[in-house]
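hey
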């Protein structure tokens, strides 16, 4: 319950593929105020189909210069250096980007709404219903607003009640911006760069047709008893209650529908996704009425909560139980409204742009793995299908570098073009992810049809990993060149980074298991069995073989301590638990934890749990550090990084670790809740949680 302005923690409603973030009025009335300052939180309306490219933006990497990296006697090119090619390099990074599809706000006749004349009373987000309830006053006059998103349509519904509406003074405004690659995803200062046309389709049904640099979408607004004044020059429509008779309540719905989005065009034609991402606009129909839509919204959310996994800590005496339960509940809601689409989510989901709104494949595990453990594998399967969609692109990436199989991009828009970057194109820890995520779905109940469906994705992923490894005469080694998950190392010298070699080993063996389930002979075990072992020194594991100063010199003990993922995220048989426990202790003693990201804390917690260090598992999950901050709205704010006012891999990672701690993992000894303290301070009740691997 909010009773004051919370600029850093606004509340959102959504359906997993479409999201609306509101201020204390329940709309986006004070977007400028919320977006002001270094720690701004833009108020956006965003859809997973909402991709825009600036006019003249490069469409592929054919104009780029690729830097050669020596790869065991042959050169492999990577787009890592923008020098002399800044326009093409930056153009591919910034395009396509997500954009804010339309601002919905209140307007007061004859006055400007400000924090001086508009005051919050209370605001409550009912996550059981998916409805945001807002109460505030304007010049002492009360206003009450209900806001929600339809569970199956990209539609925002608003019901407002106030004497100001009856008096005809309070209006609703729809304002369309130009797209932007920046955090705000919007540019309201460029009215000449885009077009909006307006028409009345029927009584109370109004249509807006939008066009920006070839991207086209429609918005249907439905409200009985309103007049609309449209200003084409500033792309703004004002909805005013009609005179005689004028009610005190105004219902209005806005449905956003793509018409043609160039970045999505190939996906729209591809039939591997569960349903088309771009649906034709039913121009003759209108969104359901408010009450009908609210009933559908509440029914969806009741089903979502009752059919998924549950973890009840309410009977625990440990004072940390309440905070953990709060984070779990809000993280389930936030991932549900922003990460259940048919594309992998951006790290800030559908709240605002991070890295231009593009999704990062190495983060996909942290975004999505929890769905399988929380009884919601169907949600994971929706975006997992994207691997099938872009398999031809992944094959092309691998072949262009002289490798077999399919090499998955790191940072991309729906086209799957690998965004140029000094770091991104050299990462490889995303490669085994489809094997991991598919296996989690199988463990959650998928059968033989699913095995066959993902056979090619898994086999070709493993084919690339085997091809990427190098036989040095006595063992298979990993690299150079690449950059490990801990992005502080020179790609030209990295050899056998700990997490990567064990993830490759696991992935190759698991691919063989998958093939054998389908009656095929194993193909990759002989490689997995000969991969180098993780390097160690002085009784602890190192970042990689050529980094003996992992714990002694900067920058080697900053960023992600990813060697700990070998025994937490994975259950590596190459790991000595005693050495891993010492490595965890060493990392906790010397690592610069202010450089962690939100998913590092769940990663450490999973490692501690698998080591039997129950108290440490809980302590690490809730550790008080800048980037493990969980705001009142549940968002994992990355304090100190103004580009990340929220960070969904942290929320989703928390859910993954909590499920593992409660339901356990393979070879956990059969103990109940093996990741929680067993001194009686925690009472764990759970249902529909799936054991981790």
């Amino acid at each position: 319950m909010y009773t004051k302005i919370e600029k850093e923690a606004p509340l959102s409603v959504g359906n997993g593929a479409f999201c609306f973030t509101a201020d204390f009025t329940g709309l986006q009335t004070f977007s400028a105020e919320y977006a002001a300052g270094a720690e701004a939180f833009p108020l956006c309306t965003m859809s997973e189909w909402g991709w825009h490219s600036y006019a003249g933006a490069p469409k592929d990497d054919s104009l780029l210069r690729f830097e050669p990296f020596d790869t065991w006697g042959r050169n492999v090119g990577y787009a890592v250096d923008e020098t002399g090619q800044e326009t093409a390099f930056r153009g591919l990074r910034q395009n396509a980007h997500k954009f804010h599809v339309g601002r919905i706000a209140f307007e007061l006749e004859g006055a400007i709404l400000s924090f001086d004349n508009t005051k919050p009373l209370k605001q409550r987000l009912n996550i059981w219903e998916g409805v945001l309830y807002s109460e505030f006053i304007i010049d002492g006059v009360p206003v009450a607003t209900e806001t929600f998103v339809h569970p199956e349509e990209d539609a925002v519904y608003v019901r407002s009640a106030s004497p100001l509406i009856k008096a005809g003074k309070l209006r609703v405004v729809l304002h369309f911006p130009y797209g932007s690659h920046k955090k705000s995803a919007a540019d309201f200062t460029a009215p000449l760069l885009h077009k909006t046309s307006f028409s009345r389709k029927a009584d109370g049904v109004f249509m807006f047709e939008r066009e920006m640099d070839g991207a086209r979408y429609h918005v249907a607004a439905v409200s009985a008893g309103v007049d609309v004044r449209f200003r084409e020059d500033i792309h703004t429509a004002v909805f005013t209650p009609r005179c005689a008779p004028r009610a005190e309540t105004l219902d209005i719905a806005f449905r956003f529908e793509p018409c043609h989005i160039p970045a999505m065009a190939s996906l729209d034609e591809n039939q591997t996704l569960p349903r088309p991402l771009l649906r034709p606009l039913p121009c003759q129909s209108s969104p359901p009425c408010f009450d009908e839509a609210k009933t559908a919204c509440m029914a969806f959310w009741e089903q979502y909560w009752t059919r998924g996994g549950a973890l009840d800590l309410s009977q625990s005496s440990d004072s940390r139980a309440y905070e953990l339960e709060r984070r779990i509940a809000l993280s389930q809601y936030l991932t549900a409204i922003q990460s259940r689409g048919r594309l992998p989510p951006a790290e800030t989901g559908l709240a605002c742009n991070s890295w231009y709104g593009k999704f990062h494949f190495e983060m996909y595990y942290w975004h999505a793995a929890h769905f399988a453990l929380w009884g919601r594998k169907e949600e994971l399967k929706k975006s997992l299908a994207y691997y099938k969609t872009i398999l031809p692109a992944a094959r092309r990436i691998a072949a262009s570098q002289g490798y077999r199989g399919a090499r998955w991009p790191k940072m991309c828009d729906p086209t799957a073009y690998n965004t140029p970057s000094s770091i991104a194109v050299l990462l490889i820890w995303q490669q085994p992810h489809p094997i991991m995520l598919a296996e989690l779905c199988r463990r959650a109940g998928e059968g033989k049809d699913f095995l066959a469906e993902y056979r090619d994705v898994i086999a070709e992923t493993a084919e690339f990993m085997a091809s990427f490894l190098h036989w040095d005469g006595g063992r298979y080694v990993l690299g150079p060149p690449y950059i490990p998950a801990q992005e502080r190392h020179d790609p030209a010298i990295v050899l056998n980074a700990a997490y990567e070699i064990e993830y490759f080993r696991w992935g190759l063996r698991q691919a063989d298991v998958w093939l054998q389930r389908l009656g095929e002979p194993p193909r990759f075990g002989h490689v997995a069995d000969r991969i180098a072992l993780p390097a160690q020194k002085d009784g602890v594991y190192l970042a990689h073989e050529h980094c003996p100063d992992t714990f002694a010199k900067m920058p080697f003990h900053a960023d992600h301590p990813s060697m700990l993922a070998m025994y937490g995220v994975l259950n590596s048989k190459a790991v000595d638990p005693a050495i891993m426990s010492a490595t965890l202790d060493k990392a906790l003693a010397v690592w610069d934890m202010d450089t962690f990201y939100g998913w590092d804390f769940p990663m450490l917690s999973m490692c501690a749990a698998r080591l039997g260090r129950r108290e440490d598992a809980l302590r690490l999950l809730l550790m008080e550090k800048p980037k493990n901050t969980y705001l009142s709205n549940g968002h994992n704010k990355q304090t100190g990084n103004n580009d990340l006012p929220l960070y969904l891999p942290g929320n989703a990672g928390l859910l993954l670790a909590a499920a593992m701690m409660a339901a356990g993992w393979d070879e956990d000894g059969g103990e109940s809740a093996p990741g929680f303290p067993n001194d009686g301070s925690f009472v764990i009740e759970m249902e529909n949680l799936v054991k981790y691997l």
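The chain is about 30% helix and 20% strand. Confidence is low (pLDDT under 50) at residues 271-284.
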